[in-house]
Design a protein that fits this description.
Helix content is 54%, strand content 0%. The protein is mainly α and 210 residues long. Helix 2 (12-32) runs parallel beside helix 4 (62-79), helix 3 (36-53) crosses helix 4 and helix 5 (103-112) crosses helix 9 (187-199).
């Protein structure tokens, strides 16, 4: 027990720096919507790499430890650019869109939803830079699996109206930092979209459960 306590005390500077790095990493991952396994992988690379490349972490000054974390973070950023995931951007052909009741309904859906839920994704420049490319690709893959408005199923859609009413879509990270500003619909635009969806064949609204 004492030996473990002594180890903690001896490495307290490194542990504090590692904890701060982990917290920043998980916060950053949450802000960009990066999947938890990817975030954990990056944090482990930075913290583990910093520990392995520091000779006798217990005896290092705080400045050197912090510089090592910064250097390892930059090294990790460079290394992960070689990961192929997130670089294959595809937009298959449109096969079966809903019969939108008005062009305005489709335009509002394009602005708010099509960059994750269609085959007409506008891939931004940062979709080629890891780990942002991982997050963007994951969002699109997940979004298309949930519902793809370019290849809509024949079964009724009972979720789209609900998530718009509940302000679950678009998610916060989609419009964070001023990104996809056009996806931030005004109250009137949201009401117009909902009215259009309620009149578009295939979209149904769940009844409120008591």
């Amino acid at each position: 027990m004492n030996s473990f306590k002594n180890l903690i005390v001896a490495h307290r500077k490194f542990l504090l720096a590692g904890l701060a790095t982990a917290l920043l990493g998980f916060l950053g991952g949450a802000l960009i919507g990066l999947a938890l396994p990817f975030t954990l992988f990056l944090v482990l690379m930075v913290v583990g790499g910093s520990y392995l490349t520091l000779k006798n972490p217990a005896g290092q000054p705080t400045r050197r430890i912090l510089l090592r974390f910064v250097a390892m973070s930059l090294t990790t950023l460079i290394i992960i650019q070689a990961v192929p995931y997130g670089r294959q951007h595809s937009n298959p052909s449109t096969r079966n869109e809903p019969a939108w009741v008005t062009p305005e309904t489709r335009d509002l859906m394009v602005r708010a939803c099509f960059d994750c839920h269609s085959n007409e994704v506008t891939w931004p420049w940062y979709a080629n830079v890891a780990p942002l490319s991982w997050a963007v690709t994951h969002h699109v893959d997940e979004g298309r699996d949930e519902v793809n408005y370019s290849d809509i199923d024949t079964k009724p859609d009972d979720n789209t109206i609900e998530v718009i009413v509940d302000s679950e879509m678009p998610p916060g990270y989609y419009t964070a930092f001023g990104l996809h500003a056009s996806g931030n619909l005004t109250f009137d635009e949201k009401e117009t979209l909902l009215a259009g969806l309620r009149s578009t064949p295939g979209f149904i609204e769940k009844e409120d459960e008591d």
